[in-house]
Amino acid sequence: MKSLTHYAAAAALLAASGLMFSALEPRRLWAANPAVSKEVSVVSIAPTHVGVSAADLVRLESVAIPAGATFQRRLLDGTTDSGPATHGYEVPAGMVLVITDADWIFNSAAVESNVTLTVTSRNGPFSQGSFLFTSTARADGDGSGGASNVSTTGFAIAAGRNLLAHTANATLQYVVLRGYLKPE
User: Fold this and answer.
1) Contact status, residue 54 vs residue 76, Cβ threshold 8 Å
2) What are the tens digits of pLDDT across the range 135-146?
3) Whole-angstrom distance, CA of residue 132 vs CA of residue 96
4) What Cα–Cα distance (Å) separates residue 168 from each residue in 86, 93, 183?
5) Which of 59, 72, 144, 163 is the most buried (most CB within 10 A)?
6) What's the CA gap between 14 and 31, in Å, rounded?
7) Residues pairing with 62 in the sheet
8) 101 shares a domain with 178
9) pLDDT tens digit string along 60-113?
10) Residue 44 counted as domain residue
11) Which positions ≥6 away from 173 have C-beta within 8 Å?
C-alpha cells in the first residue's frame, strides 16, 4: 500500500506537468490547454476520516468453523480475500491492522444469559492465540443477541497474523470487524 508521501509525490508530479485535479471531480484532470484535458481514472489522494486512503480501510467478515470463526476481507470491488488455506485473512507483510469496530450476533444461548465474544490473534491455524478483545451481550428470551462495539483507539494486529473469534456458550451467527491498515 502506498503511503501519503507517495500520494503527495504523485500530486506534485501532476502539478509540475501542468495537470490539475479537482477535489469535487476526482476523475477529471485538466490543463491550461483544453486540448490536453482528458478523463482518467484517479485514486483519491485525500485520506479518509481515520487518516488512510479508502483502499486501506478493512472490513473482515466471519467464516464459521467448528472451533470458532476465521475471517475474510471484503474488498472494495465486492470480492473477498480469504487468506492462505483455512487460516483466514492474514495481515499483509509490512502492515499493521488496527481494528476499531466490532459487530456480532449469536443464537442458541441459554435464555437471558451473558454471552462473551473473544477475538484472538494467531500465527497459523494451530498456534496459541493472543487475547485481543472481548465483548459481552445478554441473550434475549429466545437465546439470541448481539452487540456493536466502537473504539477510539482500537487494537493492533501485526503482519502475518490472523484472527479467530469464538464464544463459549452460544453459536456465532456472524462477526464483522472494521478498521484500517497502516505501515509498520
Assistant:
1) yes
2) 999 999 999 999
3) 14
4) 21, 32, 34
5) 163
6) 10
7) 71
8) yes
9) 999 776 567 889 999 888 898 887 766 789 999 999 999 999 999 999 999 999
10) no
11) 105, 106, 107, 146
Q: What is the pTM of this model?
A: 0.71
Q: Of the candidates 141, 131, 137, which has an alpha carbon nearest to the alpha carbon of residue 172?
A: 137
Q: Structural domain of residue 33, as residue ranges?
A: 4-39
Helix (H) or strand (E) holding 119: strand 114-122
Quick check: is 9 in a domain?
yes
Q: Could you report the per-residue pLDDT of 43-62, keeping only the tens digit for each?
A: 555 678 778 888 889 999 99
| Number of residues written out for the chain | 184
Side chain identity at residue 41, one-letter code: S
Say whether both 59 and 103 belong to one domain.
yes
Q: In the block, which residue shows the cell 435464555?
A: 111
SS3 sequence, 29-45? EECCCHHHCEECCCCCC
- Residue 170: Cβ within 10 Å count: 25
Q: Examine the domain organization and report whether 82 and 164 are in the same domain.
A: yes
**Overall domain count for the chain:** 2
Of residues 113, 116, 98, the one with CA closest to residue 158:
98
Question: What number of CA atoms fall less than 13 Å from residue 135's CA on the CB side?
Answer: 23
Q: Partners of 165 in the beta sheet? A: 69, 119
Shared domain for 22 and 78, answered yes or no, is no
Residue 87 CA to residue 136 CA, distance in Å, equals: 25
